[in-house]
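Researcher: Going back to the complex we discussed earlier. I've cleaned up the inputs and rechecked each line, so this should be the final set. Can you rerun the prediction on the complete assembly and write out the structure?
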Amino acid sequence: MSLSSSLNISGSALKAERIRMDVISSNIANAKTTRTPGGGPFKRQMVVFAPEASAPGPVDTNLDWTKLRQPQGVGVVAIVEDKTPPTIEYEPSHPDADQNGYVAYPDINEVAEMVDMMSATRAYEANVTALNAAKNMAMRALEIGRG
Amino acid sequence: MEITSIGANSLIQQGSKLTDAKATNGASFGDLLKDALKDLQGIQAEADTSAAKLATGEPLDIHEAMIAMEKTSIAFQLGLQVRNKLIEAHQEIMRMQV
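Model: Rerun complete. Updated structure for the full complex:
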């Protein structure tokens, strides 16, 4: 693996984790949103990750890549909505209450979102560490022959 | 037993080969210096565009900018090391007594 594609793998993970963080922030911000343009309350969103080839880096031609699986980065393939039904609460004075006085709130648990947020933050930091480690290996290689 | 004379011709040929090597070293050394300066310029340009994007509020992937800068910086370090090796070889040749 060339240095460029090694750094691209971690770079793709950083981008994916940042998108995940954005989705989590959106969920937390819209935890009480009862009105959306499409009708109904806000639906919790989730990201779907899938491996994707790290963007264009030259492949090491010394190895036989037909037999080996090339290390891949990660990409966001979809942002899907949660299918669980919304939470119904009785609040007749709310502007979005239906004729029985029930309001549909999004099924977003702030505590679960906070845990996801911590996981996304730690994953981001882990990928930064991996990137630094790959870079340090390259810098060490430059010290060959010194001393 | 045949005694062959020391061919002055062969000595001159070897000397000329050495100076040729020095000449090619000199040409490629200049090229390498240019490449290293180009890398440095690349880092600076990348840093400037990133700062401008951040200031004007354009969508900026900070980690993309940092990774690009790291790649250029490593390329620059490589150029530096090649330059060091070349200078070492050059000095080694200059130290040879005629």
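Model: Worth noting: The radius of gyration of chain B is 24 Å.
Researcher: Good, that matches what I expected from the previous run.
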